[in-house]
Amino acid sequence: MVDTPWTRRHVLSLADFTAAELETVVQTAVSFREVLSRRTRKVPALQGVVVTNMFFEPSTRTRSSFELAAKRLSADVINFSPGTSSLSKGETILDTAKTYLAMGTNLMVIRHQEAGVPMAIATEMDRLKTGVGVLNGGDGLHAHPSQALLDLFTLGLTLNPDNPSSSLLVGKKVAIVGDILHSRVARSNLWSLTACGAEVHLAAPPTLLPPGFGQAFVDQCPLGIPRSITQHSTLTPALEGADFVMTLRLQKERMTQHLLPSLREYHQGFGITRDRIASCQPTVKVLHPGPVNRGVEISSDLMDDPRFSLISEQVTSGVAVRMALLYLMGFGQAGDRLETANVGVGL
Ligand code: NCD
């Protein structure tokens, strides 16, 4: 049962999310996960609401996951692709957003290679008093809130499948390994995991994790809550006793910037293998947001081993978590549908 009221029109970052709000998302996703396990995997919660996916950057799972989530909530979905759009005729992004606004869009999911684009569109939507909600589907190196929320849900579900909760993360050791400097997934996870009381350990070569990175996060925390972040330049101390290991895609473009000697050497120092996780908790589980470079961030056999890998679970949970986000954000739009929304969702 969710008792913290949802007050956000937009979800652009998790930096100022409280533990209670994170738990609201998790508990709402629990209800939708149950919906997804039924024979009729659909609820009428967002009937008549228009969700527009505006992905200016390539994406496989995030875009499809948002599309399926919106459809499972009975929303009408528009998918925008920059390649075939008027952007190539010189239209600005804000004008594109206003075009979809004029078509009656209520919720926009925006991914862009530049940090700040979802925020700029949200600001414009507010300035125009549209009531449109903007959800950040990943912007530059800044944030990827829905990924971190699905990671949080996956962790809570793993810790107690019968009663998943973000509160179960208190005191759990989560190692985040890899290209942290260039990862919006890591940044968003840092906010959510630490807000829930997890002890986060970062491990990467110094070129991908500059000294003071973790401390800078703690220092800029807008909520003033204690956050536990420890950083390491080798893998061993991060893995020791870890409950979860979160690996990140090694962005191959970093090679050309000479931040790494070679993928092979990276794997030798920071690749997650069966041998390496032997120092973690016996129940350790490994996550990866995808897309994975097999044999680089994580050994191929470990990635495919369901005893350790949560990668498929992350994708499955992603739909329920994105349904939860769209539902919570769309609720204001669909205020008069409150009754309908409650039917079959169990909130
Ligand atoms: C991530 C992204 O795009 O930020 N992937 C995803 O959304 N599943 C991670 C990545 O591309 O490395």
Structure keywords:
2 domains, four-stranded parallel sheet, disordered C terminus, binds N-carbamoyl-L-aspartate, about 350 residues, alpha/beta, Rossmann fold
Q: Can you count the helices?
A: 13
* Level-1 CATH class name of the largest domain: Alpha Beta
* List of distinct ligands in this structure: N-carbamoyl-L-aspartate
Low-confidence stretches: 334-347
Report on the architecture of this protein:
By secondary structure, the chain is of the alpha/beta class. It has two domains: 19-143 and 317-345, 3-Layer(aba) Sandwich (Rossmann fold), CATH 3.40.50.1370; 145-313, Rossmann fold, CATH 3.40.50. The chain is built from 13 helices and nine strands. The strands form two sheets. Strands 7-6-5-8-9 form a five-stranded parallel beta sheet. A four-stranded parallel beta sheet has the order 2-1-3-4, with helices on both faces. Helix 1 packs across helix 12, helix 2 (61-72) packs across helix 12 and helix 3 packs across helix 4. It binds N-carbamoyl-L-aspartate. N-carbamoyl-L-aspartate is lined by residues 61-62, 138, 144, 147, 184-185, 249, 289-290.
